[in-house]
């Protein structure tokens, strides 16, 4: 995951510094439409790292069956429209499989090879034969600073970016909405195509294709 090194701002935070109130007021930005176009109607979906249900709810509205998973009890408590499970992703082992396993929010960019492999093995364990694993990844060039982005009365500042060995990056993200502001320090690792393919294979998956030209959305399938 984007490993949080701590967070500040109003309201409760998860152990990695994610601000729950910020997640609650952040809408979908087309992710639900992209996912819906890539999968079959009425798919069963295991959503890993659901947060407060920002994408869960639109997927349910589109007719999919979603089981939402997050390690934060404060996050999953806000998802009341479907089945939820409070668990770390790496430890999750259900006795059922799904048409689609979804892992967004750049969780695959965790800056720890062993932890990333644990996440991918969870994906592989829960996808049915012939199903799909959809991953959202950070790619080189996405995390640049200092950068200021303003959209829909929201302001995001990316600052204190550090380039670290092994294609790792650290940065501070500061979100401002109205008179409220949240900051989080993150640590991520960009993956080359070869690195991604190798780790998918080690987990029991194979890279099928990219859903977007910029390669931020990946479709993998069980071997």
UniProtKB/TrEMBL annotation:
<dbReference type="GO" id="GO:0032259">
    <property type="term" value="P:methylation"/>
</dbReference>
<keyword id="KW-0489">Methyltransferase</keyword>
<dbReference type="GO" id="GO:0010420">
    <property type="term" value="F:polyprenyldihydroxybenzoate methyltransferase activity"/>
</dbReference>
<feature type="domain" description="Methyltransferase">
    <location>
        <begin position="45"/>
        <end position="131"/>
    </location>
</feature>
<keyword id="KW-0808">Transferase</keyword>
<dbReference type="Pfam" id="PF13649">
    <property type="entry name" value="Methyltransf_25"/>
</dbReference>
<dbReference type="InterPro" id="IPR029063">
    <property type="entry name" value="SAM-dependent_MTases_sf"/>
</dbReference>
<dbReference type="InterPro" id="IPR041698">
    <property type="entry name" value="Methyltransf_25"/>
</dbReference>
<protein>
    <submittedName>
        <fullName>Class I SAM-dependent methyltransferase</fullName>
    </submittedName>
</protein>
């Amino acid at each position: 995951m984007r490993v949080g090194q701590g967070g500040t701002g109003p309201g409760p935070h998860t152990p990695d510094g994610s601000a729950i109130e910020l997640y609650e007021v952040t809408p979908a930005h087309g992710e639900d439409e992209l996912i819906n176009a890539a999968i079959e109607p009425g798919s069963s979906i295991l959503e890993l790292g659901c947060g407060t249900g920002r994408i869960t709810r639109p997927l349910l509205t589109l007719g999919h069956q979603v089981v939402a998973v997050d390690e934060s009890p404060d996050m999953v408590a806000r998802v009341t429209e479907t089945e939820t499970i409070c668990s770390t992703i790496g430890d999750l082992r259900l006795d059922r499989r799904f048409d689609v396993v979804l892992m967004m929010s750049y969780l695959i960019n965790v800056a720890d090879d062993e932890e990333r492999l644990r996440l991918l093995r969870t994906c592989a364990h829960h996808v049915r034969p012939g199903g799909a694993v959809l991953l959202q990844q950070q790619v080189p060039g996405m995390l640049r600073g200092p950068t200021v982005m303003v959209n829909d009365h929201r302001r995001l500042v990316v600052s204190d970016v550090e380039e670290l060995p092994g294609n790792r990056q650290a940065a501070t993200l500061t979100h401002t909405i109205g008179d409220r502001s949240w900051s989080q320090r993150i640590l991520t690792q960009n993956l080359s195509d070869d690195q991604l393919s190798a780790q998918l294979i080690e987990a029991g998956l194979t890279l099928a294709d990219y859903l977007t030209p910029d390669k931020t959305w990946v479709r993998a399938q069980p071997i």
